[in-house]
Model the fold of this input.
Amino acid sequence: MALMKNDFIRAIKIAGLSGKCVCVHSSIKSFQEEIKGGVDTIIQAFIECGCTLMVPTFSFYAFTVKPTANMRPEQNGVDYNRIDFLISNQKNIYNTSCNEIDNEKMGILPYEILKRKDRVRGDHPLCSFTAIGPFARDLIKGQKNMDVFAPLRELALFDGFVLLMGVDLNRMTLLHLAEQMAGRKMFLRWVNDSAGNPVYAETGGCSEGFINLEPYLSMFEKQIFVGKSKWRIYNVAKVLKQAAKVIMAIPEITRCKENCLRCEDAIKGGPEI
Done:
């Protein structure tokens, strides 16, 4: 039996998200059944519930350029002898009106939101957030190259929520902001400015170890199911405070495995510049 718009409206209301600002990380495959009207049905349900919907719309592989010799700080979570796989067309220049996105990494929901005429996209070439709804511009306006997580800070000020729609904590970008709050510097990558000159852009690091935070965040989690998709809902301000405290007390908790360069350098505090 197909899921209908009313199923999503009901779920949004049960989750306490009506009228709220919500950052969604999603796997549409997690529903394991047809959604009548496709992904647009989900988007419309949030709109009709008065939500401001925000999603990550990263375009890392389209706009990363090769760093110059003087833009290679130590402890930056990258092997400078093996960075060619990151590099796109050296002439690419980002602007907020473009719809470039890392499709395979981001998924179909961010892709569809990015195509909407009423969307507001952040001014960050690699790790933009995009939002629709009443407070979209308020959430997004502060994002820039060297303030990658400004939309998430704003989300906390709006008493917002993160919704993990069929995905786990290793997809919660908010936890990178918790790392920053715990004193870690964000990694630096490289993009072209509007004149075509390479400049720095902040990015997060490895997120696979974030699942280790689950025992410390479960007290803030609300769960519901929509079809077979498990929705996990978190208050942003509460999660940030708790996660930052845990990361300060147990820095190794974010490590995904041994020999992960990004985890290693993040635990050391990030780039030295």
Residues 5-267 form one domain. The first strand starts at residue 21 and ends at 26. The two ends are 56 Å apart (CA to CA). The chain has one domain: 5-267.
